[in-house]
Amino acid sequence: MEPPAFRSQVRLSHMPAPSATALLDWYDVHARRLPWRVSPEDRKLGILPDPYRIWLSEVMLQQTTVAAVKGYFLDFLERWPSLPALAAAPRDEVMAAWAGLGYYSRARNLKACAEAVARHHDGRFPDTLEGLAALPGIGPYTAAAIAAIAFDVPAAVVDGNVERVVARLFALETPLPDVKPEIRRLTATLTPQKRPGDFAQAMMDLGATICTPKRPACALCPWSESCLARQRGDAETLPRRKAKAERPTRYGISFVARRHDGAILVRRRPDKGLLGGMLEVPGSDWREGAAPEVAAPFQAGWKSVGEIEHTFTHFHLILSVKAADVGDRPPPDDCFWLDAAAVAGEALPTVMRKVVEAATGRSARRTRRSL
DNA sequence: CATCCGTGGTG
DNA sequence: TCACCAAGGAT
Q1: How many domains does chain A have?
Q2: Where would one find the signal peptide in this protein (predicted)?
């Protein structure tokens, strides 16, 4: 058998193996207080969180920062306090409430998942990995997180934080995503039978506050004496990642028709693909090179009001914005008039809020809940 | 399995 | 400023 291509770091004899107990002791003192979380003190009293809240927070937290999620989580919880409430909600209202959070397939799947649990599971989330992973929008990570945090199932919960912590702890040189299976295996060996929910949350807190991507605070880490990367002195360079493809720039045209009362002409995008199910103003497709030719939604005194730029996950977008003030008239095609007062609460993605702002000079951003 | 899917904070 | 990347999932 050939040795692995990457350097297999040897743990020095004076280095203790990383123990769940050391991490949990740290967590008991330093756990973050988060709106969806049950504190370690309460969990020790046998109190487990509402699976609905854990599910909702976990879906929102997919590729999204805690700071961005907090306000949305509180808004959703206030509006739909339980799974049956969300299952009964109109889908467009859920999309509108999600607007600005990104990755809108999450909102579509959130609604679909709520309906599936209401219909097929009597309104209660399954407590097994298999049952959870069969639901829309719940993959390996979220299934493990809900099982561990909401039901104290000793599942290996591996998110971006855990990947970083484990890659450093064991000095794994293989780049992501190839190293994922190895990280999953090692995480499983670390995960304790007792307090697996707190262990999962502790791993994520450690990654978010101590074992950070840049400038990790190794001096404060409960596992510093066990960390092979720290022993080697290159914790900050781990985990390795494969180079990502560069982002091309696409171009397009957007038309903002302003009615005398301030209403804006919009249409709903198809369910699948980019910004699926969200609203947009009429315009061209978005292509590399130059904006495609496209007719305005109707004849009017269109004037160019400048360009807006927006960066998506895999391309950069430059939209030329045209605006016109028009009288009251029936909306063309699949469009409808959106009242000015309704803009803030509607399902407009951030890129479209930029477009509307460019054309109206008024802020179209959502007012953030004060936290 | 590689690609597609948003946005905002951060250093 | 800008590259990085965050409690990933679906296809």
Answers
A1: 2
A2: none
Q: Is A339 helix (H, G, I), strand (E, B) or coil?
A: coil
- Which of chain A's residues 188-227 bind strand B, using a 7 Å CB cutoff? 214-215
Taking CA atoms, A79 is separated from A82, A153, A272, A342, in Å, by 9, 29, 26, 17
The pLDDT tens digits of the residues spanning A264-301 come to 999 999 999 999 999 999 999 999 999 999 999 999 99
Residues A313 and A350 grouped into a single domain: yes
Does A58 qualify as catalytic in the annotation? Answer: yes
* Residue A320 structural domain: 249-360
Contacts of A32 (CB under 8 A, 6+ apart): A66, A205, A208, A209
Q: Which of A2, A58, A163, A288 is catalytic?
A: A58
- Statement to judge: residues A142 and A203 lie in one domain: yes
**Does the C-beta of A302 come within 7 A of strand B?**
no
What CATH number is attached to the domain comprising A339? 3.90.79.10
CATH number for the domain that contains residue A160: 1.10.340.30
Structure tokens at A216: 């990790």
Give the span between the Cα atoms of A190 and A56, in whole angstroms.
Answer: 27
In chain A, the percentage of residues whose pLDDT exceeds 90 is: 91
